[in-house]
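Pasting as-is:
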Amino acid sequence: MLVIPAIDLKDGRCVRLRQGDMAAETVYSDDIPAVARQWQQGGATLIHVVDLNGAVDGEPHNLSQIEAIIRTVSVNIQVGGGIRTIEMVRRYLGAGVTRVVLGTAALTDRSFLEKACMEFPRQILLGLDARDGKVAVKGWTAVSETRATDLLKELASYALGAVIYTDIARDGMLGGPNLEALREVVELSSFPVIASGGISRIEDLRAVQALGPRVEGAIVGKALYDGKLEYRAAVMALGKA
C-alpha cells in the first residue's frame, strides 16, 4: 500500500485546512517545488496535489505551482481541484501529470466524466468526498443529497483508475480515518481505493491496509507536516514504498 503525501495549494502556498474550511488554514511553505522535492527524497513514488482555490471556484488557480512541481520531481503526480472541462484534463496530462481527480464534475456533469474516462482510461480518479455519507462538491462548500455509496455504484462501469474516499469530518483533525465508511467503500468499489482523511499514526495506516488488497494507498497531509508521522518510518512499517 502506498503512503501518498499531499500538497494542498491555496494562493500559491502549501497549506492544510481543518475539515475543508478555507478560513481555517495552516501555511507550511511558500516554496512548493521544495516541498515536492522533500517527499521525493523521502521515498515517495506518488504525490497527491490539490488546487484548493480551484476546487471552490471551478477553475485552476495554482497551475504555475503545479507545473513547477512537475519540472522539479520525477515521481508520479495526481492532481485535483477545479478540473471541470476536458481541455483542462488534457492540459494537466499533457504537462506531465499522471492522473487527474474529478470530484464535483463526477456528480454534476456525467457526460464530461464519461468523455474523460473514454479519452484517458484509468487516468481519471473519482474524488469521493463525503460529509455524513453524502457527496460534497465545490471544494466541500456544498453537500448534495446523493449518497457516496450510490454514486460509486452508478459509476461502476466507467474506466476510472481509482476512487479517493475522503471523510471530511476527519480531514485535518488527526483523529484517525473512518474505517467503517472506508470498509463499505472498499466492498462496493469496482476500482482500487485510496483512503484520505484523519490518518495520523502508523497504526492508522496499518488499519487501512488491513481492509484488503483493493486499497491502493493512503493520502497523508497534516500528520506529515506537523511531524506526528515520519514518512520513511511509515513506508517501512508497511513494507514497501
